Amino acid sequence: MKILVFIQVDDNKINRMSLETLACAQSLNANVTAITFNEDAANELKKYQLDKIILAKNEKLNSYNPLNYAKSLEQLNDGSYKAILFAHTYETRDWVPRLSVRFNCAFISDCTEIKNENNSLVITRQTYQGKINNDLESNSQLLCSIQSACYKTDNLVNGNTQVDTIEINLDGIPSIIRSEEKFKEQKGGVDLTAADIIVSIGRGISKEENIPMAEELKDLLNAELGSSRPIVDYGWLPHDRQIGSSGQVVNPKLYFSLGVSGAIQHQVGMKGSDKIMAINKDSNAPIFEIADYAVIGDLLEIVPKLINKIKE
Amino acid sequence: MKICVLVKQVSDKNDEIKLNQDQLSVNMENFNLVTNESDNYAIEEALLIKEKFNAEVVICSFGKETSVQVIKDALSKGADRGILIENDSDNEYDILNISKIFKKTLSDENFDLILSGLQSDDIGNGQLGILLSEHLNMSHASLVMETNMNDTNLIKVKRELENGWFQWSELDLPSSLTIQSGINKPRYASLRGIMMMKKKPIKIIKLSEIDANTEDKMNLKSMYIPQKTKETQKIEGTDDEIAEKVYDVLKNELGLL
Predict the structure, then answer these.
(1) What is the chain A residue with the closest CA to B241?
(2) Among B223, B233, B256, whose Cβ lies nearest the Cβ of A292?
(3) How large is the angle between the packed helices B95-106 and B128-135, nearest 10 degrees?
(4) Chain segment A35-77, per-residue pLDDT in tens
(5) Residue B219 belongs to a domain
């Protein structure tokens, strides 16, 4: 079985999730080819045990453009790969659907596990906010993206692999998507990644007026305040407090969530925490699947009592 | 100018999810059906563009006949007409097949813009808008946080990237945008809007009556509740008891106080 892994490069560095994806591919007992558009990344990949490294070259690939990326993969996919794997990043979500149409094969996004069962790939993907797992199989070529933190880069097998360079032709692609330089909104925003303890609030906080209560708990624990996406969408906290795939990825010693349901997008940003304590009214909330301490109850009642207790 | 908004009817996020006996489908009987959250932001963005350029806003959904409700809700807010592609089969379609069904239905409409929510809260593929951009030869942008349109040939969009980065892109129309939640403040339907909705056309197309060239390539082997990988200590009781136990864990087990 042949597997192709696309290696994403951000700011001249290999994306961490791409290496996790490479570890996933290596676990499949398959011939793994890695492909990248960046020469430094190609050289760095030499140290892993792979069938081949393909460096696809064209100066237009120095910056991200979905149409150029899609055209390149189109030229490199000879149809012999059982699956083409990607890290489930925003960039992947932006361009890989176009490949799905061009190759007329399904793109199974945000997979948590891939297994090789008798030379057939079984893909696990979650639905309903992480409440259900679906095991899928395909009888044709597949595109898959792998969720963050499902595979460990510690498990990458080392070796010595050669780089093949291929020139890509990108002439005649219409310039209908023109991107400017990327930028950061807030300078000196909060760096939640350095916090030892994070108190994080979600929809269950109910009202903006309840936020000072969470802040009081945060101060008593000498913690930082974080939140899930809806709180930022409501405008109750600034974007730099957001934890999850569209915010910061944190690994504190304690992640203490108040009324966060724990959708996949949020879990991606915090499931690496040492200890997770979650308060939620809904005993089926997905956050409890990854919590060390599942506190089932009304945070609006419990937190004030806890605050009083700590103050004593 | 014509704008299409793709909307989906989904279960409420708080609904309990149960599997049917076949372990291959979800029991939908007791679902509270609502408009997918990020789709509400896509509808609002379309209405804001409509107000500026006097555009026509068409709401399009694929699903069971109950999905007509999410179209009506959008028409009540000010959209002009609706198209429901009714899935009158028992089949579930994967997202590539669903995109082919939309392509077949929408290709003659020649939309200048297609807006959709970032991803559905149930299946969560987050692909439809981009698949359609490829099918219909349009530019696209995903995770759009802000739009800026000064003429009807191009649109500027602010995209959200990872780790707090943003980027502005300029797109030639026609274009398909997937809208991030929080981009605007979705309006509520007015009483007048609800009255006007009753006169707005909704075209219902049955899936069995169109030939979308869907192909059966994916096989669902099984569905199941995820196995927990962690040992979880449950803390339950009265509010006082819970506060006491949480305090004890923070102080004695974790040594944080």
Answers:
(1) A302
(2) B233
(3) 50
(4) 999 999 999 999 999 999 999 999 999 999 999 999 999 999 9
(5) no
